[in-house]
């Protein structure tokens, strides 16, 4: 399917100059930009030898933040097709992405959320092709660097050994490494919520957590009426 030169490039380490970072919800996220992914695909696979299509684009939630801005979340599913040079073979990859638009008007918030969801899904689908599309950024054993500066360590507070808790608080002196990908919950960070790891579970903390239920449910969390918490079990092998 891929020639020797393409395989060599795909397996190379990701150039640190392509890695960007941004802070969300008191954590630092490492990522590569959408236009970078498209340019890299053009260089490795060639113009006309790959394409992507939007399989699904869904509006999943709408909130209003403390600044009276509209906060709208979208979910997208994107399929990527990569062809061999003579178009006799093809590989298909598909993944889901989430996007959040924050703006004064609903129209602008919808536009931002939809575009971000599609870009996120595209990047997640492309990462299955290797390091050049950011797959190595998901390897927690590697200390990635962005712009020649060390990536800050993202950490979460752990609780006593009980699966559900009350009065969840966030420790901003984080010194325990997280065992999941925080980028998946960026939509929650944008509406002022946080995600705390506690004994194999993820717990949502912050103000008005029930009022923001649509955004929380869209990320796969469930409501525990007894303890008044949103929770989600960590996948096995995530740590």
Automatic annotation (TrEMBL):
Organism this protein belongs to: Aliarcobacter trophiarum LMG 25534
Entry annotated with the keyword DNA damage: yes
Claim: DNA damage is one of the keywords in the record: yes
Entry coiled-coil feature ranges: none
Lineage, top ranks: Bacteria, Pseudomonadati, Campylobacterota, Epsilonproteobacteria, Campylobacterales
Chain intervals for the UniProt region annotation (Disordered): 134-177
Similarity annotation: Belongs to the RAD52 family.
Residue ranges, compositional bias (Polar residues): 144-158
Keywords: DNA damage, DNA recombination, DNA repair
Pfam (any one): Rad52_Rad22
GO BP term (any one): double-strand break repair via single-strand annealing
Identification of the protein by name: DNA repair protein Rad52
Biased composition annotated in UniProt, kind: Low complexity: 159-171
